[in-house]
Structures are given as C-alpha cells and as structure tokens.
Predict the structure of Putative ABC transport system ATP-binding protein.
Amino acid sequence: MTPSAPTPVRDGVAVSLRSVSKTYRLGDGSTLTAADGIDLDLGAGRFTAVVGPSGSGKSTLLHLIGAIDEPDSGTITVGEQEVTSLGRRALADYRSTIGFVFQQFHLIPALTLLDNVIAPLVGRRVAFDRHERARELLEAVGLGDRHASLPSQLSGGQQQRVAIARALVAGPGLLLADEPTGNLDSHTAGEILALLANLQRTHGTTVVMATHDPSVADRADRVVAIRDGRLDPAPA
Ligand SMILES: Nc1ncnc2c1ncn2[C@@H]1O[C@H](COP(=O)(O)OP(=O)(O)OP(=O)(O)O)[C@@H](O)[C@H]1O
C-alpha cells in the first residue's frame, strides 16, 4: 500500500487546541456548551482515544478538529495550518486531507466496494492510479477479493473495513474515527481496532478516536477523558 502523507509535524504535535469553546443554541432559546475551553495537544503519529459518556462532547471535539463544525472561540492548529483562520475554500481543501470514519459506515449502496473507496477522489486531481490505490487499500483491510461486491453483501465489520479504506484513500496524515466500533460485536470491534492500530503504526497516521467504551479506548496509545465539554484535568 502506498504510504500516507504524514501530517506536517510541529515539535511532534499533529493537532493543537487552545481555549477552544463551542456553544450550541437550542430551539427553546437556551444554550449548551459542548466544548468548554479545551486545551489539548495530540502527538503526531499517535493513536489517541477521546472517552466520555453520551453527550459529553466527543463528537463535537472531532467535528471541530475536522472543521465539520466551527468553534466560537479558540484556535485549532493541525500540522502547520491554523485551521481556525482558514477561509471557505482553504477549509474545504483542509477537510479533503483528513480521513473520517463514523459509527454508521455511510457507504454508497449502489456502488461496488472499489467505487466506494475511490469516491472521495471524484473530481480531484491525484498523482497516483486511483484504482490501484483502492485495490491496495481493500487488500490491506482484508477485502482484496471483494472489490466488485456491493455494501449490502457485506457484514457490518466488513463494511467498516471498507469505510476505513475509503478514509485512507487520499493518504491522510490524520484519521478521525467517531465510535468506529459502536455498531459492531465485541469480536469484530477488536478486529477493527487492531486494523486501525496497525495502519497507524505502519503509515505513521495520527488517529483520534471517540468512544464511550473504556475497553475500546484502552487500545489507544493515549486516553483523553471529556465530560460536559471539559477535558479531565488528570494528565492522560
Ligand atoms: N448541532 C447541535 N445542536 C445542538 N446541540 C448539539 C449539536 N451537536 C451536539 N449538541 C449537543 O452537544 C452535546 C455534546 O454532543 P456530542 O455529540 O459532542 O456528544 P458525544 O459525547 O459525542 O455523545 P454520544 O456519545 O452520545 O455521541 C450534547 O448535549 C448534544 O446534544
């Protein structure tokens, strides 16, 4: 498999958040602070788990890092880029450099596995053969012989493997995984976590994974706890 482009490294830190806050306005006029003055440095090439109960702010944190959502205040720096100061176009470019994996696999039902993996590259110029890259990735996630199958012909664990291959197709240095094992039985979850850890080790990808499950978080290099939008002050 072609190695991922590593996230540009600043003193070994891939992702840096300073005083990051996000408050949502609810329909009844009240507000809810989902990120409350977060300071966090995530090591380049490391596998970090963000753990906390439902509603604690895990997805919000990943969405802020991935620029799916915008903080009200604070700065987020990824590699050399201060994401929070980017304009619309640069933000879209930034998002396209990140791999996302979600609890629901979000594969396109009508497309073969190969075409699902290639999908993020549609309309983009790339310096490699996209079919070859997709085949290599499907091989790497153990589905090399299933490239012509449709998602409906796969188990949940296999679909998540395809979603991981798709997340890696552009060679991201940063992979954000939001409850990637939430829809899987514990055996299959273990296989997916081993796959993520292996990709992280082999390609130096920085992985940030949100989970409510401490046993899933244990598979990461580092565990960061969040509650009510605040990071646990205990050093992780
Ligand atoms: N777009 C939104 N509008 C309003 N409130 C939101 C929005 N997104 C998240 N929230 C609220 O922010 C808080 C944190 O949500 P978030 O999804 O980050 O938590 P979580 O830890 O990922 O939860 P879960 O484990 O259940 O997915 C929750 O109270 C949630 O209801």
